[in-house]
Amino acid sequence: MARAPPQAAPPQNAIVLNMVAASTCISAAVVLFNPVDCWRIRWQVQTRHPTMRAHLASILRSEGVMAGLWIPGVGCNAVGAALCRGIGLGCYPSVRDWIVGPGGEKGGGAMFLAGLISGGIGYGLSTPLWQCKTVLQAGVETRRPLYKNGLDGLVQIAKAGGVRGLYRGASALIVRGALMNAGNTLGYDFTKTFARRNDIAADGQALHITASVVAAFLSSTFSVPADVVMTRYQSAELLGTSYSGVLDCAVSLGRESGPGAFFRGWTPLFVRVAPLYVLYLPAYEQLRKAFGLGYLQ
């Protein structure tokens, strides 16, 4: 099978254009899939329903799709995703190439580490937005909403705890975001690179979609334990409990519910991430191409 033709040298502002491409595509995708994300958060904090199917049926019956799943946290979700993935995927090629060095050949280790670094920075900076999103979505489930909307949430958190309050739970979010982004970059970039090097598939839509599914699987698997801990920690007030820190939350969860509790929500996370990735990563590639960057290499 023919290899993809060589691409022209990227423009000088390539990193900025790549960040714009990543943030634009992911923010549009998360708005579309916010109902699945909201369901995931609500399932992680609920205690009334024995199965995810029963829980979802209850939401749809009593609240409807818009009020119960689509609207809660959608603004914070979109802006937070644009910021964290704009950095996490937008800066990834530059960080990866810096790790590899001039003339080096990229491998899985460099892909994972570059995604870990850029993802940790992106998710760390966007912590206030994710905190508001989580509380808004969990508050719908517990019937104890703390904020009217995302802006109100940011203002209230800042008034009560200052900058430190805005970054409450940042350590868990950085770990979760770094692992999710690393799963994304490793799964996507490695699948594309392996297919091209071995003449399995040309660099095009079919390969982009296949690599997106692999990326979604690794992102979900790597990040779900930290995701569960982050949700519990940031929703502690709504759940009527308190933790001295993220580590105390993780230890308490493991002691009370066992190791399986850390993978609770893997299915709704993958169900949400897989179609989101299949939509946003191929779209990101097309926007890169339109910006003169070519497909991700």
Question: Which labels suit this protein?
Answer:
73% helix; 297 residues
* Total strand segments: 0
**Computed structural class:** mainly alpha
Taking Cα atoms only, what radius of gyration do you get, to the nearest Å? Answer: 19 Å
The description of the largest β-sheet is: none
Q: What series of H and E elements makes up the topology?
A: HHHHHHHHHHHHH
Strand content: under 5%
Q: List the uncertain runs.
A: 1-5
Separate helix tally: 13
- Distance, first to last CA: 18 Å
Mean pLDDT: 88
Question: Which bin fits the share of residues in helices?
Answer: over 70%
- What overall geometry do the principal axes of the alpha carbons give? globular
Give an overview of the whole structure:
There is one protein chain. With 297 residues, this protein is an all-alpha fold. It has 13 helices and no strands. It has helices spanning 14-32, 34-45, 52-62, 65-70, 74-88, 92-100, 108-125, 127-142, 150-166, 170-197, 205-234, 246-257, 266-290. Helix 5 crosses helix 7 and helix 11 packs across helix 12. The chain is globular.
